[in-house]
Amino acid sequence: SAIIAELVKHGVLDPSHGSPESRFDDDDVEIIRAAYRMIGHGLEARHLRAIRLGSNREVDLFRQLTGPLLHHATPAGRRQAGDVLADVAQAAREMQEAMVRSDLRDTLDR
User: Fold this and answer.
1) I want to staple 28 with a disulfide (CB 3.0 to 4.6 A). Which of 1, 24, 54, 99 is the partner?
2) What is the pTM of this model?
3) To which H or E segment does residue 6 belong?
């Protein structure tokens, strides 16, 4: 579809990490569905690039946090890194949702 091509063009979607059988994995499908919803409200694929960049920055931060655990690549270290990544990702998601809710509430109260 043209929208998917635009998402790829603007770096919102990266089909290179999909499996050989399918160009997109389950996370990509979720990204596409969310993008369609936002585009349906008037945003363009190029606007969604900001969300991708924010996500990339979060991942970079989390990688720095778990780098020492992964440096030795022991099974215990990998498990611990996985636990830490899951927890900080959930905390970041909760924080981001609360921040957006608060900012949008301020927008509606003006």
Assistant:
1) 24
2) 0.83
3) helix 2-9
